[in-house]
Amino acid sequence: MNSLDREKPHRVPTRPGVRVTVRFTVPEGGTRDVVGYVLAADDRAMTVLDRRGAEHTIALAAVVAGHQVPVSRGRDPLRMPADLLDAMAERTGVHGRRFVIRLFDLLDGLEPPPSVVVPAVARTDGEWVTADPTEPLEQVAWWATRSGARSMQVRTDDPAAIEALLARGFSEHT
Description:
- The structure is a single chain.
- By secondary structure, the chain is α+β, with helices and mostly antiparallel strands.
- The protein is 22% helix and 33% strand.
- It has helices spanning 3-7, 82-92, 103-107, 137-145, 159-167; strands at residues 19-25, 31-41, 45-50, 55-59, 63-68, 97-102, 122-125, 128-131, 151-156, 171-172.
- A five-stranded antiparallel β-sheet has the order 4-3-2-1-5, with no helix packed on it. Strands 7-8-9-6-10 form a five-stranded mixed β-sheet, sandwiched between helices.
- The model is unreliable at 1-8 (pLDDT under 50).
């Protein structure tokens, strides 16, 4: 690396909606890392929302490294105990057969939206989101990833909804 490379600011993606990891210098000395979704950016700073809901405003001149990262893969949703899924469904107010998917698998290859819409019938619970199949599930998934969710369960007994879920890659959790 020559001296000119060290003087150029690092190019971290700043498009709203993109999930990034950013390392930046802090005034106290040293560096800090943040992983989250870009909420806003301009020529001088970017704001990143982490999975705990904290917003971090980072001066672009302080960025040491950064790059876009995919949605977290998470654990195998078929290994989740059924009673825990049932309790989450009860809290959300949805009923029916259990269908699950990793959010990574549902969203892989899709362009992240610059902002998310809060769904009417969905609830995050740790690394899980529980939703009604009438919700636009990709929108629910993008919303849930911003809270740290990694898997989704959907409940239904409707044959047409079940067929649609299976076609999208959901698995029935028995």
